[in-house]
Design brief:
The chain has 450 residues and is of the alpha/beta class. The chain folds into four domains: 2-166, no CATH class; 178-230, no CATH class; 235-302, Roll (Ubiquitin-like (UB roll)), CATH 3.10.20; 307-449, Rossmann fold (3-Layer(aba) Sandwich). Helices cover 41% and strands 16% of the residues. The strands form three sheets. A nine-stranded mixed β-sheet has the order 8-7-6-9-10-11-12-13-14. A three-stranded mixed β-sheet has the order 2-5-4, covered by helices on one side. A two-stranded antiparallel ribbon has the order 1-3. A hairpin with a 2-residue loop joins strand 6 and strand 7. The longest helix has 24 residues, at 187-210. InterPro entries: Cell_div_FtsQ/DivIB_C, FtsQ, POTRA.
């Protein structure tokens, strides 16, 4: 059964070859005897005698054959069909007889109608056998495979096998592709590609568009018109000014600083610049500005005068930090404020205020404080009397003088100055009249003693 099935398939193969090969369709092929010596074929169609296969080592099976498409496929070796060497008397160029032609002559007699009897089982078996590359005829007997391929008009199997590896594509990337891939892995290059290139394109486009002078002028004109239309809207108009916490002179000075006349647009009033101008006023300590409901509101906190400073240029009012508040025309205008004088007195205002606070019991006799050498104070009393205070801890020295006055009525004496610069040795300097009276009393005491 195996030989008969293979015979049918090979018969189909032979008929397909006859339709495509004029040599195999010749009458002498059909008249080839079933047994004995086969018909002699031209030697150029066969391999040399020493390359021909024998019955022991050559096995063939027919390829798959589709009756609808007469396509001829190459032969492969199979264990179910083989060739016999033919009669012993065959010549050196004899065609080897298939064993099935010897064992089954009835199959060769029905060559004309063999294609019609091809079964599905034979086609399936042939397709499975064709996939056995390890037993293929092209691998075991290349010379015979070339001869059969030339006879059937098929391409050379060795040529196909040699050309196949050359057609394979090298999967490795090219040198340029490799370098581009490595370059793309760097963060700087990716950032430059994703951000730098689009930004450059946009800037380049804007530069080219704005390169025309007419376009620039039109753009500026449109911007100015839009700005003026927005600034002239009623919700941005300022019609009134309200100032709180300022004296009359400061109020008038602030109103004179307003850059525009009301009503005006709020865009024309620079609040930061106006605040800086108001703060520069000596009488103003701080100021808050805001625009609400068409009104500019200014809250002013003025400096409070704490002391008077007399210098060569006149009389100035200073606050507790020594900052100038205003110029005073006369001492009588602010008799409630203490007076300081001397070079550098304005720099020691806090210390002068502490001394004036301690000297409250003698304020009716106090005329003022004089800064000496920019390092210490002299307290001036009525009658041109002076209390010379030390540079270090003058408040304690003043308290000691007040204690002596309370105990011995020191300040009621006829003296010129009380020197407290040396705490361990206070010195009192008397007037000329007091000194004469003191000598007279001492002389009387001496006469009475003698």
């Amino acid at each position: 059964m195996r030989s008969l099935g293979s015979a049918r398939v090979l018969t189909d193969r032979l008929h397909a070859a006859e339709r495509h090969d004029p040599i195999m369709s010749a009458p002498r092929w059909r008249e080839m005897p079933r047994q004995g010596a086969p018909a002699q074929m031209p030697p150029e169609h066969f391999s040399p005698p020493h390359q021909r296969a024998t019955a022991e080592d050559l096995h063939l099976h027919a390829p798959a054959f589709d009756p609808q498409t007469p396509e001829v496929l190459p032969f492969h070796a199979a264990p179910d069909t083989d060739f016999a060497a033919g009669d012993a008397g065959a010549g050196p160029g004899a065609w080897p007889q298939p064993r099935w032609l010897v064992e089954a002559p009835d199959a060769a007699a029905n060559l004309e109608d063999a294609p019609a009897r091809a079964s599905a089982e034979a086609v399936t078996r042939a397709a499975a056998a064709r996939r056995r590359d390890d037993n293929s005829l092209a691998r075991r007997h290349p010379a015979l495979a070339r001869a059969i391929a030339r006879r059937l008009g098929l391409p050379d199997p060795e040529a196909q096998g040699a050309a196949a590896p050359a057609a394979r594509r090298d999967p490795a990337p090219s040198r340029l592709a490799y370098r581009l891939q490595r370059l793309w892995l760097t963060p700087v290059f990716r950032s430059l590609t994703r951000i730098g290139v689009p930004v450059f394109v946009v800037v380049l486009g804007l530069g080219l568009w704005l390169g025309d002078e007419g376009r620039r002028a039109d753009l500026v004109g449109r911007y100015e018109a839009l700005r003026e239309a927005i600034e002239a809207r009623p919700e941005f108009r300022v019609e009134r000014m309200r100032i709180t916490g300022a004296s009359a002179p400061v109020d008038g000075a602030i109103r004179a600083m307003l850059p525009v006349a009301l009503p005006a647009s709020s865009f024309d009033i620079d609040l930061a610049d106006l605040r800086a101008q108001i703060v520069r006023l000596d009488a103003v300590s701080s100021v808050d500005l805001a625009i609400r409901n068409g009104t500019i509101e200014i809250a002013v906190r003025e400096r409070v005068p704490a002391i008077l400073w007399r210098h060569a240029g006149g009389l100035e009012m200073l606050d507790a930090t020594g900052h100038r508040v205003a110029t005073l025309v006369g001492r009588s205008n602010r008799p409630d404020l203490g007076l300081i004088a001397g070079q550098g007195a304005q720099e020691a205002v806090p210390e002068a205020l502490r001394l004036l606070s301690v000297a409250a019991p003698i304020l009716p006799q106090l005329r003022g404080l004089v800064r000496v050498g920019e390092r210490r104070w002299d307290m001036v009393l009525t009658g041109d009397r002076r209390l010379l205070l030390p540079a270090e801890n003058p408040v304690a020295a003043l308290r000691r003088v007040l204690a002596l006055d309370k105990a011995e009525d020191l300040l009621a004496r006829d003296f010129v100055q009380v020197d407290m610069r040396l705490a361990e040795r206070p010195t009192v300097r008397l007037t000329e009249a007091a000194q004469g009276e003191y000598r007279r009393i001492k002389a009387l005491e001496m006469q009475v003693t003698h």
